[in-house]
Amino acid sequence: MSRINLSAWEDGTQRLVVGYDHPASGAFWQEWASVEEIQEAEHRFDKMSEDDPEYEKVMVIVEVGVKREGGMWPGIPLDKFRESVPEDLRDLITDEVMELLKAHKADLDSGYNKGPISLVK
């Protein structure tokens, strides 16, 4: 799977990552939690029971660090990708990003023979 870093938190850790995953037949996006959000989730998780409606969401933040994501399986078709990203992050899905995703779709080795691309400004 290819990875394109689109934004980072103030400490430099990744915030929004997109890419193309050939086995999943589509694109994906992941919004990573900040250090503060992970610490808050850890604090909340310690007090939660498994029947809490937020349990799984908080557990993923604690264990993986991802707070929102889409297209991890199955992938999102490229013609539906932009609209699948939450509105507050959608401005980061530029024409340049879409062209890179199209190129990654066409390259069966994308993500396997190349490292992540950073478009963080």
Key phrases:
single chain; 121 residues; alpha+beta; 4 helices; globular
Write a brief caption for the model:
The protein is an alpha+beta fold and 121 residues long.
Account of the protein in words:
The protein is α+β, with helices and mostly antiparallel strands. It has a domain at 4-33 and 65-118. 33% of the residues lie in helices and 22% in strands. The protein is built from four helices and five strands, in the order βββααβααβ. The protein has a five-stranded mixed beta sheet with strand order 4-3-2-1-5. Helix 1 (35-46) packs across helix 2 (55-63). 25% of the residues are buried. The model has no long low-confidence stretch (mean pLDDT 94).
Layout of helices and strands:
Layout: E1 4-8, E2 14-21, E3 26-32, H1 35-46, H2 55-63, E4 66-70, H3 78-84, H4 95-106, E5 117-118
Parallel strand pairs: 1-5
Antiparallel strand pairs: 1-2, 2-3, 3-4
Helix pairs in contact: 1-2
Number of β-strand runs:
5
How do the strands line up in the largest sheet?
A: 4-3-2-1-5
Spatial extent as radius of gyration:
15 Å
User: Tell me, what's the shape?
Assistant: globular
The major β-sheet equals: 5 strands, mixed
Strand-pairing-aware structural class = alpha+beta
Q: Tell me the span between the first and last alpha carbons.
A: 23 Å
Give the low-pLDDT segments.
Answer: none
Mean of residue pLDDT values:
94
- The portion of residues forming beta strands comes to 15-25%
